[in-house]
Amino acid sequence: MAYTVPKLEDYSPAALDKAVAELLAGLRQEAAAISSEGESKAFRDRWMARKNGILTQVNDLWLKAAPGPAKREVGTRVNNLKTDVEQIVDDAQGRLSGSASQARLESERIDITLPGIHRPLGAEHPVIRTMNEIVNVFRAMGYSVAEGPEIETDYFNFEALNFPPNHPARDTQDTLFVAGQEKKQQRDRLLLRTHTSPVQIHAMEQQPPPIRVVVPGKVHRADTADATHSPIFHQVEGLAVDTNITFCDLKGTLDHAMKALFGSDVNTRFFPSFFPFTEPSADVSVTCFKCGGKGCRLCKNSGWIELLGCGMVDPAVFKFVENNGYKADKISGFAFGMGVERIAMLKYGIDDIQLFFQGDMRFLEQFV
Ligand code: PHE
């Protein structure tokens, strides 16, 4: 039953104490039952509102109605009641908002002892790593680094590199052409570059001699994938043009580079080869680093492993960049190109080129 303020008939101290005690008991009971903000506000109004709140009623029914001699006794009690009621109402509200914020803290609790989310560190892919190693060997010799587009025109991939139109040497490159270009002139037709050599031309168009540049990059050929072939692979190209560059410079440069890459005890061997854009041309082998040259399965019992192609820049190539200062009678140069996957496979003893492109973590994690 909700508390109501009684009229007083008996103003004796004992009766007053009893009335006060009943009021406080009623108040405490209601205070304990409060469980929401809304209830708490109604509760405060019911007890403390100036207009017809219980304290106001007490003032009217007990104090104002008290006969003269009892006024003093009633007055002290009513005053004390004001303080007590205020205190109890405040406490009740405090308890409510206290438990509300407690509930919020509970729901937003963070367990800082939980293990964090493990983010594994990334690592360079073995192909990129090998490519960077090769590039750095040449940077240390003063070469700058250039890149070129993966989609090339026939002109840069073939014509300016002295592959004449319809020349059979083009067939060796298993080219992937962009479809639907029959209307274009042959030299403007787009293709996926089959080697990084077109960047030789871009570099010479951009910079007059002398030039020393290495070009890392991705190339494409219409090869069926197997353990040693992939339609996408990487090359590092090199080009040096200056006055008086000789085949000796080429041999010395590549011999140094191979020793830097594979260890100072490897030897290099140059033997004649053919590329339309170099003359003379050579293929370069290094002593098999598995058997040290004695002959094993890796080197097919030859003691040598063939690694790259190179040669002296063909004067016919300079013709295409003559306007930028490449006069074949004043300058000379050499170029080389090597396959990055092949070098990585030999360096790390990998027997299947497909492993580089399958994204198998068990393979890749070995290079972290
Ligand atoms: N571009 C040639 C290839 O991909 C390699 C090469 C580069 C040969 C530079 C000579 C000079 O086979």
Can you describe this structure?
By secondary structure, the protein is an alpha+beta fold. The chain is 39% helix and 18% strand. The strands form two sheets. It has a seven-stranded mixed β-sheet, sandwiched between helices. The protein has a three-stranded antiparallel β-sheet with strand order 2-4-3. A hairpin with a 2-residue loop joins β7 (268-275) and β8. α5 (126-139) crosses α10. The longest helix has 37 residues, at 71-107. The two termini are 77 Å apart. The relative contact order is 0.10. The chain binds phenylalanine. Phenylalanine binds next to β9 and β10.
What are the key terms here?
368 residues, alpha+beta, 3-stranded antiparallel sheet, 10 strands, binds phenylalanine
Strand content: 15-25%
| Straight-line N-to-C gap | 77 Å
Give the radius of gyration: 46 Å
Structural class: alpha+beta
Number of E-state strands = 10
Backbone shape: rod-shaped
Give the % helix: 25-40%
Mean pLDDT: 93
Q: Specify the biggest β-sheet.
A: 7 strands, mixed
- What ligands can be seen in this structure? phenylalanine
The strand line-up of the biggest sheet is 1-5-6-10-9-8-7
Unreliably modeled segments: none
The number of helical segments is 11
Question: What is the H/E string?
Answer: HHHHHEEHEEHEEHEEEHEHH
